[in-house]
Amino acid sequence: xQLVGKAEHNARRGRRLGLAALAALLVAGLxxxxxxxxxxxxxxxxxxxxxxxxxxxxxxxxxxxxQQALVAATKKWGLAKVPLAAPPAPKEKEEITTRDGFExxxxxxxxxxxxxxxxxxxxxxxxxxxxxxxxxxFVRMMQELKIPYTAFLSDYxxxxxxxxxxDMQATGVRINNHTLNHRYMPGLxxxxxxxxxxxQQDTIQRQFGKRPTLFRPPYGNYNExxxxxxxxxxxxxxxxxxxxxxxDRMEYREWDRDLHPGDIxxxxxxxxxxxxxxxxxxxxxxxxxxxxxxxxxxxLEDYL
Length: 304
Ligand SMILES: [Zn+2]
What we know:
By secondary structure, the chain is α/β, with parallel strands linked by helices.
């Protein structure tokens, strides 16, 4: 049975690696499995970079170990329920269009503004703005719970500690644009808006090594110049939000006060100075709401 499992596993890898690599893998894999010592050992989850190597990893055991780690993290961080697993990222992306009523006068060719991503998956997206609070517990919590999120940073709040967000980026979080100084965009000239948006594109590229494609205007306020400026700086999408999470409550845009498949949830890098709680408190609240309603948190960029 172990051999069959391994062969299947190798076949899957083989499809990715090509036939020549498959042959090599099969030889290597069978060689190890035939060693009676190896076969007699109970399957332990392989440690990352462990000497056993990838060829003897049992996917079922690995999944089980991952689930056990998630249950332990749920308990450790005080979540009410184990977060639901998001389905695989869609292979073909739906076309993203501007939400009705959110268009600017001449929107054609400008980046779409949307609050919800078109999908039938029971997923929502977590997006976190600004950057004032830099709580290392929060980064650890999200990493251990494997909850994806997207950061929209405003440089004036972040520049005293880029390292905090670099460490966050290293956990798989994408860093996106929320302007240099968090000004009310429609109150600025096109040129000033461009400085705010392109300036932050340059800063993020310099500090984090990647130029964002997502931009969120401060307060969700924008005009045609904002979208033109954003486009000229390389922005492809302008996701805003359909719900907002706080440590003690949710706020919804829709009359039904509910979540919907593909909804974008906004929250902030804030702590006790601004909120009735910490960032981990906020995550406990939003995850209880999301999980109770049967949703998983997926990564926004996977759907765009
Ligand atoms: Zn903001």
